[in-house]
Design a protein that fits this description.
This protein is of the alpha/beta class. The protein is 43% helix and 20% strand. Strand 1, helix 3 and strand 2 form a beta-alpha-beta unit.
Amino acid sequence: MKHTDLLTCAVAGVLALALPTGAVAADFPSRGLEFVAGYTPGGGHDIMLRTMQKIIQEQKIIDVPITVVNKPGGAGAVSLGYLNGHKGDGHFLMASTSSFITTPLTSNVGLNYKNFTPIARLGLDPELVLVNAKSTLKSLKDIAAAAKVLNVGGTGKGSIEQIVTIQFAKALGKKLNYIPFQSDGEVVTALLSSQVDFVVSNPGSAGDFLKTGQFKALAITTENRSATLSDVPTFKEQGYDITLSLFRGVVAAGDIGPTEKKYLADMVRKLSETKAWKEDYLAKNRVEAAFLGPDEYAAFLGKMNEVYRGSLTELGIIK
């Protein structure tokens, strides 16, 4: 065999050893993508993912079909288990909000944020104190003056809504009875039917009811008044130092390859830059733009895990 033939064979051998993973990854995606919502249809996870699906497909950001599936239960625990069951498969993308951190901290699910692949943070979503417009509660002063123990709705045990509720109760120096629901949609329904006295929820879930006048917002958790909800006073300006915002992002299954990770990250980044996303999701749902890529989102999740661990420990929810 000639020297050049030997060299060619050697190079081919090296490539054969180096390329199997890349060759498989190069075929990604080999089928449609699945967007996983950890709560029921109509909730914040569902709305975000279905808006993503619509814009990505209409603007032809990728050329494979996308299906949104709902895996409710256990304040997101069911969806965590579902996504973990597809470890190593980049065809799945799950909505991740504060329950992505708090549910593993407060439940024995055997998983945490480190078991998954951060893809992007898409925005920040403040919390609101909301009452039914027919309620006799017209301000935080009315809540403070209430003679009975008030029932407060929110999503999940140990969620950001519960943390805000407990911080508010401590600031008031009185008991509030927190009632956890499985989804934002259930929280809204509970307030509409006056099953609870007030709820702590995000503007995205309650936006339509604020517009129609069915709900009234008494406070918002931002540092300063929101530009899109300028008539809603902050907790701080009413004398309560409560400032927590819900983050909204997406994660993939754990152990996916770099090609899959890059494909998903590029897809979501391109989505976030479209006019349709800014108008049809961020502005429509009053979510503040706060994009972070995979590495930055991973660091953010690590910080949030410590923030929530500290808050939940201080509040006695975890030890």
